[in-house]
Amino acid sequence: MESKNLYHCENLEFNYFSGTQIIPALRGVSTEVNLGDFVCLSGPSGSGKSTLLNLLGMIEPVQKGVMTFKNLRISELSEAQKNHLRRHELGFIFQFFHLMPTLSAYENVEFFLLRQGITKLEREQRVKQALESVGIWDFRGQKPLELSGGQRQRVALARALAKKPSVIIADEPTASLDQKTGREVVDILLELNQKQGVTIVLASHDPMVIERSPRKLSLRDGKLT
Ligand SMILES: Nc1ncnc2c1ncn2[C@@H]1O[C@H](COP(=O)(O)OP(=O)(O)O)[C@@H](O)[C@H]1O
Ligand SMILES: [Mg+2]
To answer: What is the model's pLDDT at position 122?
Structure first.
C-alpha cells in the first residue's frame, strides 16, 4: 500500500545570512503533511511562513534538521533531483500570480507541460481539464492583463494543477485579491481538496482563509505554537 505520508519535518532550522548578520527564520519546526491534507500555515509577518514553504518547495536547502518528501531525505538529493521533483511533483501559486504576460491563459498553463515533453494530445487534455476545474476555460484565449485578479489566480492554479502535482504550495494566495474574490479562490482550493484529493499547503494571514482551512498550523518567531 502506498504511504499516506508526504512530508516529514523534524527540527527544521533555517537562517538567512545578510552581510555579517544571521537572521533566524525557523527555529526547530517539526510536523507531518499527509496526502489529502489541506494545511494552512498562519502567523504574523516575519514568523517564517514563506521560509517554511520554500523548504517544502525545495527552493531553499535544508540547513539543519530533517525533511523527507515521499520518504526521500531531501538533504541527500542532488540539485538535479530536486529540480526534477519541483518540476513534476510540486505545484506553486503565489500572491502575485507570476503568469507570463505575453501568453494567453491557455498558453500559460501549457508552458510547463511543453518543457516536460508531454505529447500534444495529452497536453491538450490536461490544459482543458485544469482550466475547467477552476472554472476558467471560457477565458482561455485572454492574456493576464485582460483578466481580473481572481481570474489570474485561477489560471495560476490551473497551471499548477496541470502538472498533476502531489501537492500545491501556495504562498498568500488571496493577499492581493478582494474578500469576495479571495473567498472564491478558497472555494476552489477546498473543492479540489475534497473532490479530487489534491494536497494543499498554504501560508496566509487572512482570517477568512485560516478559519476555512481544515488543518491549521500557527508559526511565531520561527516556531510552531
Ligand atoms: N531573503 C531574506 N534575507 C534575509 N532575511 C530574510 C529573507 N527572507 C526572509 N527573511 C527574514 O526571515 C524571517 C522570516 O521571514 P518569512 O519566512 O518571509 O516570514 P513570513 O512569510 O511569515 O512573513 C523574517 O525575520 C524575515 O525578515
Ligand atoms: Mg511570507
So the answer is: 95
Q: Which atom of ligand 1 is nearest to the CA of 203?
A: 21
Domain 5-219 has CATH 3.40.50.300: yes
Ligand 1 centroid to residue 182 C-alpha, Å: 24
Nearest residue CA, atom 26 of ligand 1?
Answer: 46
How far is C-alpha 12 from the geometric centre of its chain's CA atoms? 19
Please report, as a single letter, which amino acid is at residue 178: D
> Ligand 1: which residue has its CA nearest to atom 25?
46
pLDDT exceeds 90 at position 14: yes
Domain range annotation of the chain: 5-219
Q: Specify the ligand 1 atom closest to the Cα of 47.
A: 22
Pick the closest to residue 209 from 37, 33, 42 (CA basis).
42
pTM of the full structure: 0.94
- Ligand 2 centroid, distance to 87 Cα (angstroms): 22
Nearest CA among 155, 146, 141 for reference residue 91: 155
